[in-house]
Design the sequence.
């Protein structure tokens, strides 16, 4: 998956396809197959070909977003009821956190999982964010591929505009019920309550209820979706997700309740909001041909030279001119008139040019202090360590790796270590072994840090590892965003971060071993010296007093030498 | 072998340690290193001798366990010698179960300590009161062993031709035995299977010899028995083992010159008059024997002996033979001769080989 290429760094492949289809058919339907031009049959098989073309034309029809979704729901993380519950919660929580941070509000999020029937749950996610402007609400929750994060390049959790509407579509498809949204943008504004369904044929919202309601919160948004789901505990459960989210978002407080369980409060460990990620323009190396072509059509620039300078980072007018020359295109050409063949020349010319690395100040890592705080809050361990690596770049995209470790204490010792993976603070719960974070862990030689490690596997020991990758564009291996692709630059940074953690843990283990060794040696004296006495007594026919003298003297001699040399 | 007053030796050593402790010194014991690196081979003497390198075990916090165990093993030995009793290695291991924290958890641990004590006093373990469980080896052929009846102390004449399809077993202690024989040579055989075949066809009668089954690497009693018999009756000893590095380097070499582990005793437990009948690498070619490929462990063993074994290093002929086998990359078992007919070994192989003992490997 390493070479997966997307034309828009903010979109995964599926989203891109959907998006492009959407542009062709603004009513939201998708062509199952592109309409082929009038068939041009060979003269000798005219009738056969024509029949085939007619038959195929008869089969060709528009398929709706919902059909596409139903057939491809695994791509979006709805492949089974257990995962569907997790994905729905995850999308809502991601949105809430993003919204709060954008508005500079310390997030306070209430997550509820309410059992309403057999295999049927209602999830409820409420935040204290800025709220959503009234007329945007139906589109955000009732139209796939609608969102604010589509066309920006900056670090955020959601990148799509598909997640929460996909969750409401899944709810609608499995229960027939639409999403319920309450939102308020200020204490002097009324709260709005909506019940929305998706017109799956048109990919447009149908508003069932739209009313003003009383709401105690001055601002914020509450989403409720009923869906077919299974609630389970353990690994990859919603509980797991909530805990890990709290770990990676130490500035957020999460109230979490599940039917039949005592409610929990995971309170924030810091009042500081994370550094606001800056929006950046794409770096020339990170751009693919498809995206380049789109940008050429969308740009406001009047000339090709201006387009490159204005819409990309790190392109100076002079470099831009060079690129145009290399591509054999006029620098004054109107960008929208660039033909596909010419775009390809331009693309090649870009990749044959040299640019400065992209700016990295756009990233917002968790930070080592907060990782430490988070780990300390959640685990009772002997030693904690965290590191934030300096930013680095892969294929024109800036990224930054952080790692944290907790070792010893109450953590279970004889099992493979627990590995928590995060991408832009979002926990990754599935496809552990296909992820470059896991690869970074297994490729690190933990044996040199005094930990056991079966070949090609996670190390074994009382340890929790946490790795977060912050990037404007995290390269996931698939559309469901479960694993990070194996870019060598990324794996390298992960390993460097882990090695720092490893060194720290190893120092602790060594110290600890030394202490236990010393204790063991003292107990050796207590255990075995009496036997020296017994044996000599037997051989030399000594009396009890002499035996005692042997034991006492010898103990004394050994203790003294141990203190003197500091080791034996 | 000269009889040593082991009880006295033990008391002397214990006393030394006791004095050291009272003088507030850390007592120490010196043991000869028991491995191939610490032996030399003098063909005039005919066995592996200790080079005299020693390891010193000083009583420290790290060695206190082994030190205590060694002393308790010595105390046990003294008790055995005093009461004229014996204990097998296994029994000694079980006795240690009364030693509380100083007990052994597995028999190899107690065996090692026993070997240390044995080497420390440079006596064989039988004199310390410890006897091995290992079986001595089987005898068939023209030999009368003179033993004594334990109850009446009367001489017992054991005729080794009179065991039918069975065989006489070499006892664990052989020092008191006497021999009568008309045989011309001793044929020492690695496997029980080959021994059975030769006994079955009364080969000892045909060839006028004494057949001895070694059962792998020969026990000390077996080596001592062959040595005493061969010395006493001036008999040559021909060794017939598998054609592989284990047969050459471990079985034959241990029989002839002793082992690295018990080097302090090799003087008594070796058979310098032994020579190697087969199966040689040349036999594999001459007799067109079916073979198996050498395993990695075989090749490692062969290379190791070419590099480290003082006996092999002394004999060019053995270096040539072992190198040849490694080069051929195969090994052949004694019983591979059956490929040419079950009694090929009796009718052809042995007569042909025995016609030229001067060609045997040293």
Sequence:
């Amino acid at each position: 998956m390493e070479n997966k290429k997307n034309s828009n760094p903010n979109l995964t492949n599926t989203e891109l396809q959907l998006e492009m289809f959407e542009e062709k058919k603004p009513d939201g339907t998708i062509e199952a197959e592109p309409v082929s031009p009038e068939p041009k049959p060979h003269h000798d098989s005219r009738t056969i070909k024509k029949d085939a073309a007619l038959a195929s034309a008869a089969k060709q029809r528009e398929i709706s977003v919902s059909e596409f979704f139903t057939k491809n729901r695994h791509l979006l993380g709805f492949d089974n009821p257990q995962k569907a519950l997790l994905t729905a919660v995850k999308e809502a929580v991601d949105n809430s956190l993003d919204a709060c941070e954008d508005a500079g509000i310390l997030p306070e999020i209430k997550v509820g999982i309410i059992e309403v029937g057999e295999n049927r749950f209602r999830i409820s996610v409420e935040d204290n964010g800025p709220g959503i402007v009234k007329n945007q609400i139906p589109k955000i929750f009732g139209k796939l591929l609608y969102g604010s994060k589509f066309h920006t390049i900056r670090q955020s959790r959601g990148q799509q505009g598909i997640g929460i509407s996909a969750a409401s579509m899944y709810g609608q498809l499995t229960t027939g019920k639409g999403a319920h949204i309450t939102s308020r943008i200020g204490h002097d504004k009324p709260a709005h309550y909506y019940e929305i369904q998706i017109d799956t044929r048109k990919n447009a919202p149908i508003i069932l209820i739209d009313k003003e309601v009383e709401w105690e919160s001055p601002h914020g948004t509450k989403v409720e979706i009923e869906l077919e789901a299974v609630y389970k505990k353990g690994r990859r459960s919603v509980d797991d997700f909530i805990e890990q989210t709290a770990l990676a978002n130490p500035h957020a407080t999460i109230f979490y309740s599940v039917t039949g369980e005592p409610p929990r409060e995971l309170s924030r460990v810091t009042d500081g909001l994370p550094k606001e990620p800056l929006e950046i323009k794409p770096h020339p190396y990170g751009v693919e041909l498809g995206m380049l072509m789109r940008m050429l059509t969308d740009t406001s620039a009047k000339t090709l030279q201006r387009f490159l300078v204005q819409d990309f980072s790190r392109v100076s007018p002079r470099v831009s001119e060079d690129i145009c020359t290399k591509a054999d295109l006029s620098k004054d050409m109107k960008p929208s008139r660039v033909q596909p063949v010419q775009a390809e020349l331009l693309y090649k010319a870009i990749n044959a040019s040299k640019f400065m690395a992209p700016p990295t100040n756009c990233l917002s890592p968790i930070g080592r202090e907060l990782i430490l705080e988070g780990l300390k809050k959640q685990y009772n361990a002997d030693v904690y360590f965290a590191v934030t690596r300096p930013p680095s770049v892969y294929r024109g995209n800036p990224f930054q790796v952080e790692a944290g470790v907790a070792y010893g204490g109450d953590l279970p010792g004889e099992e493979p270590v627990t590995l928590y993976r995060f991408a832009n603070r979002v926990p990754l719960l599935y496809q552990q072994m296909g992820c470059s974070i896991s690869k970074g862990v297994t490729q690190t030689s933990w044996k040199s840090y005094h930990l056991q490690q079966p070949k090609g596997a996670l190390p074994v020991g009382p340890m929790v590892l946490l790795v977060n990758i912050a990037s404007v564009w995290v390269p996931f291996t698939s559309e469901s965003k479960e694993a990070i692709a194996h870019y060598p630059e990324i794996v390298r940074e992960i390993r460097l971060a882990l090695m720092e953690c490893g060194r720290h843990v190893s120092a602790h283990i060594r110290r600890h071993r030394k202490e236990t060794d010393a204790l063991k040696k003292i107990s050796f004296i207590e255990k075995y010296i009496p036997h020296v006495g017994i044996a000599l007594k037997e051989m030399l026919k000594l009396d009890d007093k002499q035996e005692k003298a042997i034991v006492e003297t010898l103990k004394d001699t050994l203790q003294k030498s141990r203190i003197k040399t500091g080791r034996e | 072998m000269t009889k040593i007053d082991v009880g006295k030796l033990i008391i002397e050593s214990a006393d030394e340690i006791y004095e050291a402790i009272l003088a507030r010194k850390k007592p120490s014991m010196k043991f000869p290193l028991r491995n191939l690196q610490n032996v030399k081979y003098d063909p005039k003497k005919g066995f592996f001798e200790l080079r005299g390198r020693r390891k010193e075990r000083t009583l420290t916090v790290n060695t206190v366990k082994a030190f205590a165990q060694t002393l308790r093993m010595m105390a046990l030995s003294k008790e055995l010698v005093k009461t004229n009793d014996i204990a097998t290695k296994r029994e000694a291991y079980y006795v240690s179960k009364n030693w509380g924290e100083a007990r052994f958890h597995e028999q190899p641990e107690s065996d090692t300590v026993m070997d240390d004590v044995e080497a420390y006093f440079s006596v064989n373990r039988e004199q310390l009161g410890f006897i091995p469980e290992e079986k001595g080896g089987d005898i068939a052929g023209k030999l009368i062993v003179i033993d004594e009846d334990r109850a009446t102390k009367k001489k017992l004449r054991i005729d080794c031709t009179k065991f039918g399809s069975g065989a006489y077993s070499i006892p664990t202690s052989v020092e008191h035995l006497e021999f009568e024989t008309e045989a011309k040579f001793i044929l020492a055989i690695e496997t029980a299977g080959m021994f059975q075949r030769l006994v079955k066809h009364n080969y000892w009668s045909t060839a006028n010899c004494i057949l001895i089954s070694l059962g792998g690497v020969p026990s000390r009693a077996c080596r001592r028995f062959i040595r005493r018999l061969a010395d006493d009756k001036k008999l040559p000893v021909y060794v017939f083992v598998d054609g592989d590095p284990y047969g050459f380097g471990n079985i034959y070499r241990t029989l002839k010159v002793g082992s690295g582990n018990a080097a302090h005793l090799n003087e008594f437990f070796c058979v310098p008059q032994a020579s190697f009948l087969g199966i040689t690498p040349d036999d594999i070619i001459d007799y067109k024997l079916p073979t198996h490929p050498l395993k990695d462990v075989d090749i490692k063993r062969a290379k190791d002996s070419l590099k480290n074994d003082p006996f092999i290093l002394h004999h060019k002929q053995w270096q040539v033979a072992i190198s040849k086998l490694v080069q051929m990359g195969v090994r052949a078992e004694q019983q591979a001769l059956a490929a040419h007919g079950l009694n090929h070994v009796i009718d052809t192989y042995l007569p042909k080989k025995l016609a030229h003992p001067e060609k045997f490997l040293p």
Summary: DSSP finds 13 helices and 17 strands in chain B. Chain B has two domains: 6-131, 138-359. The two ends of chain B are 26 Å apart (CA to CA).
